[in-house]
Amino acid sequence: MMPRWIVPIVAALTLAMSVSAHAATIQITMENLVISPAETSAKVGDTIEWINKDIFVHTATARNGDWDVTMPPKKTVTLVLKKAGTVEYYCRFHPNMKATLVIAP
Amino acid sequence: MFVRLSAAIAAVSLLSSAALAQGAKPTDPQIAHIAYTAGVIDIAAAKQALSKTSNKDVKAFAEDMVRDHEAVNKQALDLVKKLKVTPEDNDTSKTLSKNAAAKLAELAKLKGAEFDKAYVANEVAYHKAVDSALETTLIPNANNAELKSLLQTGLKIFQGHEQHAEHVAAALK
Asked: What was the pLDDT predicted at B1?
């Protein structure tokens, strides 16, 4: 018999698990100074995995200031999306690298 | 404008004529040496700028130069080690180093906004010259596929530097 106080915790955990089951991990590659795909669709709660295949440091910097992620050479960095919107982002060090992330609520 | 343009033309013709003066096409060990030397020169120029400038844009530009050129040169060293190639000194590398030393000495005498302008103007000209040498001489003559690919990555990143330098130069006017 489960003590009564455990029930809401179990319920909360079950809920959290079912929510995370819906969240996706989306990969975006930075290679040879190009971000691909150039446009990605995602949802709030999804995880973006930026894979930097270059020998250079890159950033994924949102033009609206929402986030600024730095990727060391040959490393992958993740970000959980928290806010909906169409976000244009670029690499601060190599501004020719540009892409768009369309985040649905 | 004219001064900058003529500096660029002088630098370009210097690079290509020095390379052509050898008569034969540069070999892979020579190409590796030229590319590495070109990187070392720009890192030295950037470090001089970092020690002299107080302009935010110039500082950010110089930091980018150090970071990117060190990354390319590290990759170049790893590659020559892997290929067991010894970079070979040559007339082009020697001319590049000699001119760079003269430029460093010239810039060392300048201060403040005068230094900033001269440094950035030289960066525009220098990257133009290096990009042109990569496009017309170094990349076409590279035999090893990995060396060629690294030079192509270098060209792409240096073209970005050239644009960046042009923006900073325009903002300094």
From this structure: 41
| Domain positions in chain A | 24-104
Output B71-74 pairs: Cβ under 8 A, ≥24 positions apart: B71/A55, B71/A56, B71/A57, B71/A73, B72/A55, B72/B35, B72/B39, B72/B150, B72/B153, B72/B154, B72/B157, B73/B36, B73/B39, B73/B40, B73/B43, B74/A55
CATH fold of A24-104 reads Immunoglobulin-like (2.60.40)
pLDDT tens, position by position, A37-75: 999 999 999 999 999 999 999 999 999 999 999 999 999
Domains in chain B (CATH in brackets) are 26-172 (1.20.1260.10)
Closest residue to A33, CB basis, from B67, B74, B157: B157
B163 touches chain A (CB under 8 A): yes
Task: Find the mean pLDDT for residues A25-41.
Answer: 96
Asked casually if ipTM beats, i.e. exceeds, 0.85, the reply is: no
Of B64, B75, B164, the CB nearest to A55: B75
Torsion sign across C-alpha atoms B12, B15, B21, B22: negative
**What's the pLDDT score for residue A4?**
67
Q: Which residues of B touch A61 (CB under 8 A)?
A: none
How many A/B residue pairs have CB atoms within 8 Å? 28
The pLDDT value given to residue A22: 77
Structure tokens at B3: 């001064």
Polymer length in residues for chain A: 105
